[in-house]
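Hi there, hope your week has been kind to you so far. It would help a lot if you went through both lines with me. No rush at all, and the record is pasted right below:

***
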Amino acid sequence: MRTGESICSFSKGHPHAELPGALQDWRGQRVLKNFHKETDMKVIALNSSPRGEGISKTGVLLDALAAGMREAGAEVETIHLRQKKINNCMGCFTCWTKSPGVCIHKDDMTRELFPKWLEADIAVYATPLYHFTVNASMKAFIERTLPVLEPFLLRVDGKTFHPLRQNLNPPRSVVLSVAGFPEPSVFDQLSLYVNSLFGKGLLAEIYRPGAEMLTLPELAKTKKDILEATVQAGREIVQSGSICARGMERITQPIGGDFDSFSAMSNLFWKSCIQEGLTPREFHQRNLIPRPDSIETFMMVMLRGFKPECAAQTKAVIQFTFSGEVEGSCHFRIDNGRIEAKLGALANADLIVESPFGTWMDVTTGKSGGKWLYMRRKYKASGDMSLLPRIRELFGRAD
């Protein structure tokens, strides 16, 4: 959303006394490390997502950003915080008194991550949006950078801060985050936090709302454009210290698609997880599909499961008439690999399935076999009966 200010007029290791306002708080006046185009630029990319590859939207965008940075000549190391042992800061201030600049904890943060962070020219903080700001893993990392500061209280231009240690030089910052909610304003609290934390050392903020929708097949083209723009953003950050306005527009472009339908399917998915007593991961591992709770959601599930390749030579109208807990009709018009779904009944449907709603939802979700239930007269079918066994072939299992 916002691009950071270029800080190329300041050189790495610049004496604090020569900086504006004398000693400066790294959280409020981050102007310490030199910006340069040499290929020896080091980037530490911190991914605080608890999810692994292929699931984490944070990781997908971070991979694209890191790829662009490498293309521009930077040395990029991606670190997954979920794989590291980072104890919480205890507020003991040992790093300010007994061992200045060194934390009392002997964990991965002290032994590995803090030194790498100090050596980097740029740190990318990639976090999913949890409770409108960084998640716990990222917050723990940030809090454990306390040793970079001295305990003294200074005030410049009405702002109180702790000065940086003379021999420690933290990197400039890029913040990347994703959220499921579609409104860009969902990142307002995070943006306020990181701007206060990093100040002028914040080169760029990359925020992607509606990230879960990027998994939809119909938005593959949009996803591709967003990722290509993120790769380009990585190049620009290394080359110029900022992201061009056009690139940011591409990254944050309206996601498109039907969010109302997406949210309805999402809610159905969560209801099904609750009914089955499963986590989302377990639900997907068992190859289950959400159980429709209305004719409208039944139509959505069927459309999501439709297999165009299996319907390439098919031209037919399949109608469902439900009774019981949900009453009403809907029909699907299949025309050589294309499909259209509508509410209501037709007089000339090729196949009509009449069933209690719950019974057919058992068939749809794989709880019961359609053939088995038909033989026991749990539902009725009329018309072109050759289409009945093909329903599974044409619609398969929804993703």
About this structure: The first helix runs from residue 57 to 71. Confidence is low (pLDDT under 50) at residues 1-33. The CA atoms of residues 81 and 127 lie 10 Å apart.
